[in-house]
Amino acid sequence: MASIYIETFGCQMNEADSQYIADRASASGYAVTADAAQASVVVINTCTVRDNAEKRAYGRMAHFKALKALDPRMKLVVCGCLAEQDRDRMQGKAPYVDAVFGTRDLARLGDALAEWRESFAGEDEDLSEQRLLVEPMGGHADCVGDAYAHVRAFVNVQRGCSYYCTYCIVPHVRGRFDNRPLGDILSECRRAIERGAREITLVGQTVNAYSEPATGADFADLLEAVAALDGIDRLTFLTSHPKDYTAKLAATMGALPQLNPRFHLPVQCGSDPILRRMNRKYTVAQYREKIALFRETCPDWALTTDLIVAFPGETDADFEATLALCDEIAFAQAFMFVYSPRRGTPAAHWEQIAPEVGTERLKRLAAVVDRNVRAWHERKRGTVVRALVQGPSRKDRSKIAAKTIDNVTVIAPLGPIEEAQLQARPWIDVRVDDAFTWGCSGEILGLAERYDGVRERVDARPTIDLIALR
Ligand code: SAM
Ligand code: SF4
Prior knowledge:
Elements: E1 3-8, H1 12-27, E2 31-33, E3 41-46, H2 51-70, E4 75-80, H3 81-85, H4 87-93, E5 99-101, H5 106-117, H6 129-134, E6 142-144, E7 152-156, E8 158-159, H7 170-174, E9 178-179, H8 182-194, E10 199-203, H9 219-227, E11 234-238, H10 247-255, E12 262-264, H11 272-278, H12 284-297, E13 302-309, H13 316-329, E14 333-338, H14 355-378, E15 384-392, E16 399-404, E17 409-413, H15 419-424, E18 427-435, E19 440-448, E20 467-468
Parallel strand pairs: 1-2, 1-3, 3-4, 4-5, 7-10, 10-11, 12-13, 13-14, 17-19
Antiparallel strand pairs: 1-6, 8-9, 15-16, 15-18, 16-17, 18-19, 19-20
The structure holds S-adenosylmethionine and iron/sulfur cluster (SF4).
Iron/sulfur cluster (SF4) binds at residues 161, 163-165, 168, 170-171, 205-206, 241.
């Protein structure tokens, strides 16, 4: 049978696009595999938001070139943001790539898969053993096709972004906002629920700026409509922009028990002159006001953020202001980046800060952030949390990795549990014995088919209705 392997880099939009590619491939008769060595088609869904993402993508292309050399029937496809940006140069840089599809070409990629399907007929058995010898060195992005992939569904609510932050490549490679009709979003969520999704993530670059083209329904309306779907277990969304966080949305978030108690609200930095140069459209004071609103309506939720250091023009005082803001707000998690100049964006043309200054600032920022992250995880020690399985731990396959509803990683030994049991009942109840910066570890006490815990807004308390293991 023809099979497809999809490797995904970058943000939640790419996750959603990979899911779309997997669906189109399945409809054309491909099996989706987590094993590149067995695949007739290998797709790399790329990111270009920072320079290292771009380098990794080219590194993976070179890696798969070796597989292709062993079996020229294999098709190597590159899509996503780097494909959009480097469309004209990719042929020169990686001539062995069979096809390149930009961010607006996903439907064409689906058509190409259907067309190629015929040429793979009858090749089943002998995707050579040599291929198996080449693949294991890779590593690694998220891969569609693993045993638990169906448990989480990413549903696009909008494409592109029109905010043009001066550091960001996204509007240049994904275009301006394009909101999907509400009915289409609901249909896709229904399909995901039918296929067994326990957690639906609504994704967009600025998801809370959503506005239904025909009716003007806003993001709060959309959340209510999705939360009301029959069979929905958990619901979450990424990414929000502070400017579009309204009192109505705050109240809706606080009122919907199906929502995971976590909110990602990137601040980027804690200094007004830098926020202005970034074109972020809010001040530090306005961000604080949004946080006050959030804490009032969603107490006990995890608040997470994105931060950039060493943006052009960032002085020591600007950076100290970011440190102070992070300590004040005590984020439960933060994604921290050294500014990376992107071709075609305004900030790439401004005077740059020396890389060693960026590295040093990142280290200092991480120390402040990590202290607060660890404290968030410590709150779970000694409690029982219900967490959704992700898959075997990458470091130790005798352990399973899962995420709590406030997005904390929990690792626990599988013990007598079979993976097949987990596929049917992917929620695990774990007694947390230890807390670290990366998450928590503990012991599995039970499995559950659904979250069942809509009465419990905070999962840092013992869960109920455990299904005992024999
Ligand atoms: N739309 C989201 C928002 O407005 O916050 C974020 C989208 S972006 C794909 C994810 C994160 O990457 C950003 O929040 C930012 O912190 C970081 N990022 C984007 N461009 C960057 C650059 N040129 N250098 C470093 N970090 C960057
Ligand atoms: Fe990029 Fe800014 Fe749009 Fe986010 S809001 S995708 S950071 S331009």
